[in-house]
Specification:
alpha+beta, MetI-like fold, five-stranded antiparallel beta sheet, four-stranded antiparallel beta sheet, 14 helices, 9 strands, 11% strand, elongated
Length: 389
Amino acid sequence: MRVRSSNKAMGSFVGQRPALSWAVHLSMLFIVFLWLFPTVGLFISSFRTADQISSSGWWSSLSTQEQQRSPIRITGTETQDKGLYVVVGKLFSSEAVVLRAWGTSSKRPNEYQPGATAQLKRGRSLTIDADGRYRFTAQQSQAGKRLPRVFTTASSPPEFTFRNYDYILFQGDNSDSMAKAFLNTFTVTIPATIIPILFAAFAAYALAWMEFPGRSILIAAVVALLVVPLQLALIPLLKFHNEIGIGKGYLGVWLAHTGFGLPLAIYLLRNYMVSLPRDIIENARVDGATDFQIFTRIILPLSFPALASFAIFQFLWVWNDLLVARVFLIDASGQTTVMTNQIVELLGTRGGNWEILATAAFVSIVVPLLVFFVMQKYLVRGLLAGSVK
């Protein structure tokens, strides 16, 4: 009876869900929201116009916006009609914009309704319709004179455009440099991801399955290198690169990223390889396999999740890196500029063009997003490998 009751109690205990599971789920939803909120906002902003970004947030991009626009100066070709000098034109380039109110003074920007006529000084008048079409008349010629400014409040429906991407990648003054920076980032990132994996895989196998003097000291040294900030090594490493003639180029930045990424790579791969079944290794040695054959035919295929996990980490870190690229890719001509450095330069030259900055930023993060979502299952498997024996 006691055994039966204890089994019943154990079964009921196992079938119960943790009391705080709802807190875990809410925490995960909160973290996902924190990550998605700026990313989605950046994506939507990259398709909006400058006026929409300056007047409203991205969360209101799907609703009609009523905003007070920047003052517009009347321009156009002057003609004569019944003894008056006339200038006609249109305030808005988009047909969807509807004028709500307008004025000729910053103190009274909503003084007139659409269709009303404003009587200005020196016998001049101005009429503006709801679609933004205006008619300016004067009793004397206005050639060479500045025509009045118009302050408008208008409503516009949701508007999305590909002009920002077209400007960044193809037509703008910086389109060549942005496209070049995109290719340069690939040139830096791909070798800087593959090279440390190659070295770390051999080192991890040696530290995991080969017996030699000083192995424990090497493992401790690898763990110690994980806590060393890379800023301490930047200047000495740059001086060393300049002395041997590989500074200010791709080879120097590849080796720098390799050196900074090796400790984490060796640590992750070694922990994963240690967790592999020992019987497989011993049986292969009994059958006469060498260490190189065991490594290439057994260890590497079984270690693919750990290799993919580090590859994701290294790829994301190198792609988003700015500090190492600025130190080891010093090029005044911009031939080796990477995306992060190009965006910093855009902040200086186009700090007020938020639509251009948002587009450039999203172009720089779209590749890491694709890599993360495609390889995330390997990332989780690689991180959890070796945690449970």
